[in-house]
Amino acid sequence: MPKVVLEGLKKYPVRITAVSAMLDSGGSAGRERKEYQTGIAFGDFRRAVLALADVKPRDKEMFAYRYKNGPLAGHVLANLYCSAMVVTGGDLRRSIDELLQDIREDLNIPPQHQVLPVTLDNSHLCAELENGQIVVGEGNIDVPSHDGKLKIKNVFLTPQAKANPKAIKEVIKADLLVLGPGDLYSSLAQILLTEGMSQAIRKSRAKKVYLCNAMTKYGETNDFSVLDFTQVVEKMLGTELDKVVYNNSSPSKETIRKYKRKHKELVKLVSYSRNLPKKKFIGKNLLKKGTLEHDPQKVAKILISFL
Fold first, then answer.
1. What was the pLDDT predicted at 168?
2. Of 2.60.40.10, 1.10.860.10, 1.20.1050.10, 3.40.50.10680, which CATH number belongs to 121-307?
3. What does pTM read for this prediction?
C-alpha cells in the first residue's frame, strides 16, 4: 500500500495493514539485496513504515537518510538497518519478526497498524515484451535499457514466490482492499503475482478498490488510459474490481513541465473516457494543488466512504 494511501488513512479510526513488495532489484534496496544476499529488498517496506510512523520529522528524516558520498553513496539508512537485521539474524522468518517489532518500537507505529512483506522468498520479476524479449529483474523493467516503446505483454516471477501467510490472513479478513497507486508492472505486479495473493483477494469479501496512477510511465504504461490500467490489474487478479478511483483534474502545462523535469520517466497524464460506468469508475480531483502528486487527504476521504 503506497505512502499516499497510508498517510491519508492513518488519520481515521481504522486498522491498517500494508502489504509491501519485496523483490526490487534496482536502486539502493536492490543493491543491498544482491550484495548482502538477503533475498528480499526493503525499499517499499521502508516507505510504508515511514508513512505510518508517529515520530518527530527529524527522526523520520534520519531513518530515511540517503548517503551522498563514500562507499555507502546512494544507500538509505533504513534499508541498511533492515538488511543488517536479516543478515545477522540467521533464520529469515525469525529475523523479519524481530525487525517488525523493533521498527514498530523505534518509529512508534500505532499498535493497530502494521506492515507485512508480501513474500520472504528469493525471486525475480520478469516481463515479456511484445517482440518476445524477456526482461529479467524489477530494476530493468523500472528503468528500461531495452526499447521502452515496446509494450509489456506479460509479467511473471521466477522462481515462483509464495505469499507470506500472515499477509494472506490479513487480506482475507479485511473490510477494504486498496490497490495502487504505483508502478503497475514493476511494483504492484510483484504483490499480485506471489502465489496465493490474488487467490486471497478473490476470496476476501472486502470491497476491492484500485487507485489509478495519475501519469503514465515510460517503458511500462506508455499511452495507457484508466481503462487500460484497470484491465491489466483485473487480469492479474483474476476477478473484477469493485471500484476504480482516478484523477480527472488537469494541472497547468507549466506544472506538468516542472514535474516532468524532475521525473523524466513519467510521460503524460493518464487519459480517461467520459463514458466509463459511473458506478464503478469514480473520477475526482485527487491532486495536491500545483503538483501532479495525489493528495493523501483527498484520497483517504474517498476510500473511507467505501467502508
1. 98
2. 3.40.50.10680
3. 0.95
